[in-house]
Task: inverse folding
């Protein structure tokens, strides 16, 4: 072999290695760094921890049984068993915040160029997220598989947490958790919720599939109209379809808690009229303190309360027209004054691709803000979690000890 050929081979080998290294760096940036960057940007906080309250207020907060109706944390490439510097929720932070029960809600499709109204279902930003987060190929073209995949992530968290995190699906699950937490107050539980029935893919029998996968709360709408009914953010904003009425009836037969967040006014009216069980709005604001179409009117608040349900007040700006715990407490005060303190709860929308005033460790600020609004200790206890327990009593044949419902 001539010296010239040897030089060419060495040069080619060198460029080959450079190419391999370049591909490796690109793959690392796309599949490892990019998901973290997106998570950090979309799930930002205005005020970083620690969130200081007085020792007396911290003691009050830590005495509460706290529950929140909405967090989209399963959507992101984040090991929830570990503490993270980004996003709003993980198990260590839930424990630090004294959260007893967190509803983990599953998102399956989001339109591109999202608007407050006038969205359709033709685009799919969750597909892009699924690809860069390396979700299984089965999730790429199936909204149902996306829901089932995220449910498995919560089941995995429970299985690998050495009992520190429990997935509640039955009366026995919840009763055991309540009793165990009396002795081990760091324990945390979760329930699974589905955000939008597009994941049913137009088939009422898929209600049974999601129930079997552990879902216990069913949101009828998200950001666009579906075969089941209208979204307040959709094009038509219609009422329930024939399929929608079947889904509502089948859900109530299965004792799935119906969630009317994002539902059109017509869907809300029809569901509360036909419902035989309490319904919830897992995350919302109220027009009395923040007037936009995303938030509930006074008549809608009354209709939800008349079913025995609860309204989860969100923490983000569009929900409360503010950027602190005081704005959240003001929306809670308005709702409580309208329909009574038994029908309002926390519905943060943590990790929902919205900027928050604080992550979950800031919940003591809400306890303090509720006290500043003039709520009594018993009323604060209901708002911070016991109202949600009261509603769960109706589902999965749950029979919750009256000790927690006073």
Result:
């Amino acid at each position: 072999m001539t010296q010239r050929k040897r030089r060419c081979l060495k040069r080619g080998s060198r460029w080959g290695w450079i190419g391999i290294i370049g591909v490796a760096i690109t793959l690392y940036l796309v599949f490892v760094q990019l998901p973290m960057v997106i998570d950090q940007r979309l799930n930002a906080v205005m005020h970083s921890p620690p969130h200081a309250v007085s020792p007396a207020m911290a003691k009050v907060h830590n005495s509460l049984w706290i529950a929140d109706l909405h967090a989209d944390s399963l959507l992101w490439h984040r090991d929830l068993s570990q503490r993270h510097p980004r996003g709003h929720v993980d198990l260590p932070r839930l424990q630090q915040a004294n959260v007893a029960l967190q509803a983990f809600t599953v998102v399956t499709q989001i339109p591109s160029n999202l608007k407050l109204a006038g969205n359709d279902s033709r685009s799919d930003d969750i597909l892009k997220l699924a690809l860069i987060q390396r979700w299984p190929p089965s999730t790429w073209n199936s909204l149902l598989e996306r829901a089932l995949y995220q449910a498995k992530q919560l089941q995995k968290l429970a299985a690998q947490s050495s009992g520190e995190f429990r997935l509640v699906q039955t009366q026995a699950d919840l009763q055991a958790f309540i009793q165990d937490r009396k002795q081990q107050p760091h324990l945390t539980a979760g329930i699974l919720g589905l955000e939008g029935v597009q994941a049913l893919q137009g088939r009422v029998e898929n209600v049974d599939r999601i129930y079997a996968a552990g879902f216990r709360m069913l949101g009828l709408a998200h950001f666009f109209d579906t075969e089941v009914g209208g979204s307040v953010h959709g094009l038509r904003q219609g009422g329930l379809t024939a399929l929608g009425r079947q889904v509502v009836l089948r859900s109530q037969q299965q004792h799935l808690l119906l969630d009317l967040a994002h539902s059109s006014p017509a869907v809300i009216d029809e569901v509360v009229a036909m419902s035989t069980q309490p319904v919830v709005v897992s995350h919302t604001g109220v027009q009395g303190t923040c007037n936009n179409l995303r938030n509930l009117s006074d008549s809608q608040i009354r209709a939800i309360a008349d079913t025995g349900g609860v309204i989860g007040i969100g923490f983000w700006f569009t929900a409360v027209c503010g950027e602190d715990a005081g704005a959240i407490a003001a929306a809670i005060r308005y709702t409580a004054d309208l329909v009574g303190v038994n029908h309002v709860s926390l519905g943060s929308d943590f990790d929902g691709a919205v900027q928050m005033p604080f992550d979950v460790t800031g919940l003591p600020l809400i306890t303090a803000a509720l006290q500043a609004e003039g709520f009594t200790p018993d009323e604060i206890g209901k708002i911070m979690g016991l109202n949600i327990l009261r509603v769960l009593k109706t589902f999965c044949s749950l029979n919750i000890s009256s000790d927690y419902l006073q």
